[in-house]
Amino acid sequence: MPGRRQHGRPAARAGLLARVAAMAVLLSSGSVSMAAPPSGGAKLIRHGTAHDALYDVAFEGERGIAVGAFGNVLVTADGGATWQVQAFPMKHLALMAVAMREGKCIAVGQTGLVYAAADCKTWKAAPSMTKSRLLAVGVNRQGVAYAVGAFGTILKSSDWGQSWAVQTVDWSTITEDGAEPHLYDIHVADDGTVTAVGEFELVMRTGDGQQWKALHKGERSLFGLSVVEGGKKMYATGQSGALLSSADGGVTWQSHKTGTGAILTGVHATAQGEVLASGINAVVLSRDGGASWSPLNSKLVRNAWYQALAASEGAGGKRRVVAVGAGGTILELDL
């Protein structure tokens, strides 16, 4: 990536590879035996070819969308029970993340590409604002969206992703040496508050996209972020089985022992205290807000990587939690 500094942090930079390629090959992770008994399971919903990696999934009600390698887009209208391939105007680069809100969708990916669809079907490319890989995107009910990615890249849109502006950050106030950290996930609240996670165990926040404040820092990279409805409870996952939680809207964070040394890239949490985290050869579950953990004991989980998690919600509150990852696989996970 020309023009951007690389700060010689091999362990942290390895985290970027975990988000963009066949993670089970590029990165190694070990599993730690767990004292808690195995809990839950996984059901195979879909499996593609070896090259059909899926990197993100999002739901709004029973409608859902998953994106991945080579412009691969899958959609569902029945809460994730069945999925169909959707035509997409780009087939040579990877889509790394997708957001769905108010029936509208935004997808981002390699070389800074951004696509928006007012109906989650008719995709149009937005003008390119960066060549950096974009790894996450979030949008609120007002159509304010943020996309983040490699080397501290942050973009903001106020029109549902149709146009974007680069956000300049004074990294000297965030990181110790002014390094531009990779940013891996982001949440945009309806009140305009934005929370992002990334390298150096960084959790950072802004209210306007200009002035960012570090809420937490450490050693590991954080890849996934889940904000429970209401915004008070938050969870982040990362390297070496990292899982952090906040009960005060992100002001303070607590680290939990998940019982695994696996790289955890995805996380989904509910208001009832259920937390699922997925990654390389591991999915772990907590039913008490992170106080205790157990593995999902399934060969489907142990033999592959699952990048992201999301849950659909149907009539009567019926939900389905799915994980997406290697080989275009979609799993239904049992809570």
Short overview:
The chain is mainly β and 335 residues long. It is 5% helix and 41% strand.
Mean pLDDT: 89
Q: How much helicity do the residues have?
A: under 10%
Unreliable sequence segments: 1-18, 20-40
**Rg, please?**
18 Å
State the secondary-structure class: mainly beta
Q: Give the strand order, joined by hyphens, for the main sheet.
A: 1-28-27-26
Globular, elongated, flat, extended or rod-shaped: what is the shape? Answer: globular
Number of strands: 28
Count of DSSP H/I helices: 3
What does the main sheet amount to? 4 strands, antiparallel
Q: Give the CA-CA distance, first to last residue.
A: 41 Å
Quaternary assembly? single chain
Strand content: 35-45%
Task: Please give the structural blueprint.
Blueprint: H1 10-18, H2 23-26, E1 42-46, E2 54-60, E3 63-68, E4 73-76, E5 84-85, E6 95-101, E7 104-109, E8 114-117, E9 124-125, E10 134-139, E11 145-149, E12 154-157, E13 165-166, E14 183-188, E15 194-198, E16 202-206, E17 212-216, E18 222-227, E19 234-238, E20 242-246, E21 254-257, E22 264-269, E23 275-279, E24 283-286, E25 294-295, H3 299-302, E26 306-313, E27 319-325, E28 330-333
Antiparallel strand pairs: 1-28, 2-3, 3-4, 4-5, 6-7, 7-8, 8-9, 10-11, 11-12, 12-13, 14-15, 15-16, 16-17, 18-19, 19-20, 20-21, 22-23, 23-24, 24-25, 26-27, 27-28
